[in-house]
Every structure is written in C-alpha cells, then in structure tokens.
Write a structure and sequence with these properties.
CATH architecture of one domain: 3-Layer(aba) Sandwich
CATH topology of one domain: Trna Endonuclease, Chain: A, domain 1
Number of strands: 6
Helix content: 40-55%
Strand content: 15-25%
C-alpha cells in the first residue's frame, strides 16, 4: 500500500447514510461513494427536503428571537420552501406537504410553550473520531425536553414507521456528537419525528455508555469498507428506488420476478393553490 493510499484510509469520511447504504447493498455503496455516479431525484426525497426547509426556517426564526404570530412565520417559511422546491414537486406532493405543515402549525399552536425548547436546527457536524475516520452529517433538531433532558430529533417522512422502532444508529450517532462536544452530558434522548403521523415521536433515552459505543461501530464499518473487494448486490424491494437499477443485473432480475409486488413512484409536476395561513 502506498503512502497516498494510507492517507486516504486515515481520512475516510463516514456518515449514517453511508454506513446504512453499505449495510443495505454494497454495490449501491460502490456506485454512490466510490464511483460517485450521478443520482436520481425521487419525489419522496424532494418532499423530505421541502418539509425540512419549512421547519428549519420556522424554528430558526424563533431561535433568533422573532415575536411574530406563528401563522405568519409558518406562512413565510412555507413560501420560501415552495419557491425552492415547488417546481420539482407534483400537485399530489404539494397537497400532502401542505397538510403536514398545516398539521404541525396546529400542533405547535396548541403547545406553544414547546417553541422555547428548541435550541438548534439543521446542525452540521464534521469531526475526526479516530486518526482515520471523519464523522459527518446534520442533526435536524436539538431541544431541551419538558423533563430537562437534552434531545436530538430527526424528521422522518416514511409512511411505514415499524422499521424505525429498533433502529437507533442515527439517533445514537447524533447523541455521540453532542456528548463529544460536551463531556458533562450523561444522557440524551433521541427521537424520530414522524411527519406523516401527526409528528408522533419514537424515542429512547441513551445513557453515556450506550452513546459512546457508537465510536466502535463506526470503526468496524470503516474496516469493513476498507476491506471490501467484491461490492456485490443485495437485491430487495428497495431496488425499485435505487439510483443505479439500470446498471444492476441482479436488481433488475429480482424486480422482474417480483414485478407484481413493487412499483416505482411517478408523478406530474403541477402548481399548488394559495396558502391559507
């Protein structure tokens, strides 16, 4: 191994999405992060970005000290996000987005006291956890919950919430980031915030031992990624939403055999009606 190759390994950048892609399908990881091939734009990704944008602007305004009415701040946040993402969203997606955001406005209006709990939104992080691994990503929301526990939250637009109930990697990672920044922290609550389910939270409190275990997990992922040579596909129903399905014979064969069960989303881009807030 050359000195240059050793330096690349020492600076391996990892994130939750990268290691989850590696777990899901090594071939997809190879196309995405090794070959860096162009990726598709999916309707559900755009919807997620839209919702994140609205809530970032909304909570960010109050973090900065805004005393405007909630509906005024939300209306402005909605318009800003629609200007950025509206042309890429179908009429159906826009209507769904409006219903979700309107639902959140009603929820936060009834629980106005919780606004002051939010202390940060869309927090970027990038730092070395070893001499060869850099951990990066973004935390959607950080707040102090009603019981005084520091909480990290991640917005999820999934319709099926079952798969989240035993998957804590993302939230543990975010907890690790905050605990690394502040060694006095002894516990952190992690919450998946279910946008399509009236912003219900799936949550768990992690103690400091659980939080710090995440470092070992990323070190293991780093070694497995560095050692991988075959980059074989792992066909599943998720192949329907793979950016590289046209390049993957295994994925195409799997979908052909299960064509009655799996479908790819398809929408037309149209304009949305006026905001009612």
């Amino acid at each position: 191994m050359t000195v240059e190759e050793e330096n690349i390994i020492k600076k391996l950048k990892l994130s939750v999405s990268k290691v989850k892609t590696f777990d899901q399908c090594k071939k997809k990881y190879y196309y995405t992060y090794e070959m860096k091939l162009p990726r598709k734009t999916w309707a559900f990704h755009t919807l997620g970005k839209f919702v994140h944008s609205v809530l970032e602007e909304f909570h960010g305004s109050f973090i900065k000290g805004s005393d405007e009415p909630l509906n005024v701040v939300m209306g402005r946040a909605y318009k800003i996000a629609m200007k950025e993402f509206g042309k890429s969203m179908s009429e159906e997606s826009k209507k769904e987005a409006f219903i979700m955001i309107d639902g959140y406005l009603q929820k936060i209006t009834n629980e106005k006291h919780t606004l002051k709990d939010v202390i940060a939104v869309e927090k970027n992080f990038s730092f070395p956890i070893t001499d060869r691994i850099i951990l990066n990503g973004m935390i959607d929301k950080i707040q102090i919950d009603h019981d005084g526990i520091l909480s990290v939250g991640d917005y999820k637009t999934t319709k099926d919430k079952r798969y989240l109930k035993d998957d804590w990697l993302q939230l543990q990672t975010y907890a690790y980031v905050l605990a690394t920044e502040d060694p006095s922290i002894r516990e952190i609550r992690g919450s998946y915030i279910l946008v399509r389910h009236n912003f219900e939270r799936i949550e768990k409190v992690f103690n400091i031992n659980e939080i710090m275990e995440i470092k070992d997990q990323f070190e293991t992922y780093a070694k497995d990624i560095e050692d991988e040579q075959l980059w074989e596909a792992t066909p599943s129903k998720l192949c329907s939403y793979c950016d590289f399905i046209d390049r993957c014979d295994q994925g195409k064969d799997f979908l052909a055999k299960n064509s009655r069960n799996y479908n790819v989303f398809s929408h037309n881009n149209q304009d949305h009606g006026e905001i009612k807030w």
